[in-house]
Structure prediction request, 192 residues.
Amino acid sequence: WTGEAGILAAAVVMDTCASATDAAELSMFLDPGAAALFPEVLSWGLEQARCGSRSCVEVPVWPGCGVSADGLVAAGLPPAFGAYTMVLDPLRAFLIGTPLPEGLTWVEVTPALVPAYHATLGRAFASVPFAFVPPLEAFIPRCAAYAVPPRVLTDGATVAAFVRVTLEGDEGEIASLGRDPGRRGQGLGSAA
Prediction:
């Protein structure tokens, strides 16, 4: 969408990569002076996203993108989850910590632990809106293909917690982090 001053709004739909939520992603950016274009941009984006193979649509909203959270709710797209950027002081991470519960240790997931990891992942995300954990048969090759192997907190047979990261250059992102809901209240968040 362009005006006399140039581009006023842009939208793109990505429906080519599988995600944990099996969602198409509709990303939009609107010039601060182009708020009136929001319904038209959203309508176009949703039409495009719904033509794809994904089971739902995610619309990321961040400060300065010009996307109206109220407008999304009015269009039947309520907030599903929030994402946060965290910066960790590396020195503090090594100075403060709680010991792991006895018998548990962090290891890279092994083929023998993948079924337990998959089961814990499913329980951890069971109540998360739009979360999708593929069947074990599809999960096994996906897990083996990760560039950075997931790490699991295990007693050797069961998985109490997990973390998977992605790396791009010298930056990393936590792709998934969780613990078995049955372990709630055992201090794993502090220890991990």
